């Protein structure tokens, strides 16, 4: 478990999510509190967040747990440097070098600490002129966003160098000869030291004003700034074209916001011609076609964006957006239920790339619309009546499963037909499927409260389930709509007979036991028995005839008593 948490912390650290790294390393420490590497890793994460006090505490714990490990003193020295404690940092690095004399990180750290101490004594700023550029998760976000550095993040040695520079910006001096580091420095400082996509963006059309640009990192020691690197004529031309592409995109965005879609299309197309390594241009054009209702063109652009994005190994979120946009266009084109299937497939593919809540909602909406259209397309009252009649024929032949099949088909053709629900409820009752029969009978009543058959079906199910009180209520409710209905009147008579049978104590021991067991499962009976007032009433009926006589004058009390009698719980003598 500790190794798993450690691995998550390392992954978060590598991606620049240092807060998450701290969380995972803390979890690992709780599981393995004597593991010195975990404290070392968390110290590095804290240092990356500029929380040098916490980094120092973890570094001290590291060397306490493992005093013969050189890297622990490197963490200790780095934390002291971050706090400006150069004397303590120098001591820490020297102690580390006594243990590991060939450790380059310790040597470099010692040199930096000594230089910092010298600057401090001279009254100059100890801060590395490029330190701000490497701070926080913004560094990784910038490197990921820029096409010229995105591929470097797949190279472990480059990631390791950037992590070391982020932990201690002074380590930059160790890697100035590495062209990738210089390229990354240029991106982070917004200064292009080599050819590359100047300011290329991965975002789509902005839906809100862009955030104000952050001020460039303060350069305190100009002499430490690396010299601009020479670029070839070809690289210079590429840089120029990319800059022009960005301008075209910005002009397209402005036109899009004004709903001048034709102009926006022109600018996005020009941007695509200038720079084919940024799929945001074609994505924006696809969005514009979508707004214009040119859905076929939108779909073609989305396909191009996915294909080119795969080639460039673009951010999976951009691929997901392209697939989602294609799905949206397909939904707009849908005329029948079958037309929603390719749209649903696109949304599902998009979610495998990136589980975006907006895409998930679009998927749910498409599935719902498909289902509703299927019902509309299948709706046919005439065919529904034919299927119901077929069911009636099978019912007369006592072929109830076959009858249910046709009644079900009738309801698919016309889900608002109370007769089909009533007939299917009768079939279920004949087959002893009481819960299904009750459900259909209730649906029948819901669709047509005046249809007497619904009440006879429901009452019959309740009667067979020996819920005589409920059945009586159902039959009485039906008589409100059809007072002369003989089936309802017969139902009332049968229920009263059963209820009176319990009142007279005419039930056999087995019948009484069965009715009591069923009654105790009824929530209404349980509530009556748990009611303190009713408990006292029942006690009075047994021990206090005078009080019991008063209770009989209360209709609510007697109604509850009658329910207990019907359930076989109470017998009146």
From TrEMBL:
TPR repeats: 2-35, 36-69, 70-103, 245-278, 384-417, 418-451, 452-485
Annotated keywords: Acetylation, Chaperone, Cytoplasm, Nucleus, Phosphoprotein, Repeat, Stress response, TPR repeat
Domain STI1: from-to ranges: 136-175, 522-561
Region (Disordered): 196-246
Naturally occurring in which organism (per UniProt): Prunus dulcis
Pfam families according to UniProt: STI1-HOP_DP, TPR_11, TPR_2, TPR_8
Molecular function per GO: Hsp90 protein binding
Entries under PANTHER family matching the protein: HSP70-HSP90 ORGANIZING PROTEIN 3, TPR REPEAT CONTAINING PROTEIN
SUPFAM superfamilies hit by this protein: TPR-like (SSF48452)
Signal peptide: none
Subcellular location: Cytoplasm; Nucleus
Recorded GO CC terms: cytoplasm; nucleus
Biased composition (Basic and acidic residues): 215-226
Protein name per UniProt: PREDICTED: stress-induced-phospho 1
Biased composition (Acidic residues): 227-236
